[in-house]
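Figure 3 (text version): structure tokens given as input.
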């Protein structure tokens, strides 16, 4: 009897558990929220674009460099002595006209040597003329007149023209030619004690004061003509074929406002083996320019027809571009005609094609984008 009761109780408890489980499951199912539905497509990314328009595009080659005066003289002492005070002070910023004395070195000793040798030369001529009246009477009068023109203290006149070999040998044997050319050599040395301005200009450096004892080779200063300036810069050897003498460019300076025009005046014949660049020289004109000024600009060189200019960063690794078609990215293969620092010139785009300017991270063909027109094709 007890076993029957236990069996019935077990069956009832089992049924209760089953019913409770079903009820609990129904309540949990009723309380569960439906998951949110994912959008059908990711929001399109905005990209800057331009509309291609094929035409003539002028290549711009960027350049930078410093201005340098073309007329420049480094002043070095060629002789030794004491630097004397001059009528005009030789200091940085002072201007001098062509021919004005820049610096003067004491020349008293050399001038005394000139006078001594010139006196000896005069004595030789005094002894020569009477002998010529007997040995070469045909030329005696000529040399007597020359004797009268020779000063003791003054510039020695040029020798008379010698008519024949006999006259030349006669004078050489008497030491006349040796003495004359020895004096002329002293004149050349004497001229080095006075340094004059070779052109109108300004002193940009002065390294010596009056009273300084200088020796041959001593650097005394630097003198330039401020109105004659050129820019020394360099371009890649691969771009050399695009530049010609006469090409023009616009220049600006980081030291202040303003714009100046320049013209390529010469090209170096040597390629720098370390940088693979070639030096070019640009003549620059205009107000407000100074020696040493840092400038930058772009050379307007060759013109390429049926081309489009795009930012260099827009080019992909396989030298193609992303374009936008039906709001999706499409690759467009192009021919790269020129690739500069900031700009690339390509051929192969159709007029009206929308070209992506931005370099997109993780971009792929078919990616949804929202084009934003940035600019038309640039033609520098």
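Below: residues designed for each position.
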């Amino acid at each position: 009897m007890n076993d029957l009761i236990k069996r019935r109780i077990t069956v009832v408890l089992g049924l209760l558990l089953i019913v409770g489980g079903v009820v609990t499951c129904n309540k949990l199912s009723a309380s569960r929220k439906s998951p949110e539905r994912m959008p059908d497509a990711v929001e399109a990314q905005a990209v800057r674009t331009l509309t291609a328009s094929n035409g003539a595009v002028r290549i711009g080659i960027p350049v930078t460099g410093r201005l340098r005066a073309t007329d420049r003289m480094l002043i070095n002492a060629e002789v030794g002595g004491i630097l004397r005070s001059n009528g005009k002070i030789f200091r940085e910023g002072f201007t001098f006209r062509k021919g004005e004395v820049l610096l003067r070195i004491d020349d008293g000793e050399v001038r005394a040597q000139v006078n001594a040798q010139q006196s000896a030369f005069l004595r030789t001529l005094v002894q020569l003329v009477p002998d010529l009246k007997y040995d070469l009477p045909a030329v005696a009068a000529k040399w007597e007149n020359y004797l009268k023109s020779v000063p003791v203290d003054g510039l020695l006149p040029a020798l008379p023209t010698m008519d024949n070999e006999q006259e030349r040998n006669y004078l050489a044997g008497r030491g006349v030619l040796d003495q004359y050319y020895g004096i002329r050599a002293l004149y050349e040395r004497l001229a080095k004690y006075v340094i004059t301005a070779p052109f109108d200009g300004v002193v940009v450096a002065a390294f010596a004061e009056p009273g300084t004892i200088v020796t041959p080779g001593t650097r005394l200063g630097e003198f330039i003509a401020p109105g004659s300036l050129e820019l020394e810069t360099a371009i890649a050897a691969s771009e050399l074929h695009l530049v010609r003498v006469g090409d023009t460019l616009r220049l600006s300076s980081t030291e202040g406002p303003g714009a100046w025009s320049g013209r390529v005046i010469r090209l170096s014949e040597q390629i720098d083996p370390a940088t693979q660049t070639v030096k070019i020289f640009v003549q620059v004109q205009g107000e407000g320019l100074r020696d040493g000024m840092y400038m930058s600009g772009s050379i307007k060189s060759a013109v390429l027809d049926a081309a489009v200019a795009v930012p260099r960063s827009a080019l992909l690794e396989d030298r193609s571009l992303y374009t936008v078609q039906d709001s999706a990215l499409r690759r467009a293969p192009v021919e790269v005609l020129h690739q500069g620092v900031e700009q690339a010139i390509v051929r192969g785009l159709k007029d009206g094609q929308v070209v992506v300017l931005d370099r997109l991270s993780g971009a792929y063909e078919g990616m949804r984008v929202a084009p934003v027109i940035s600019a038309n094709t640039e033609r520098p």
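Helices lie at 2-31, 108-135, 137-149, 165-173, 176-191.
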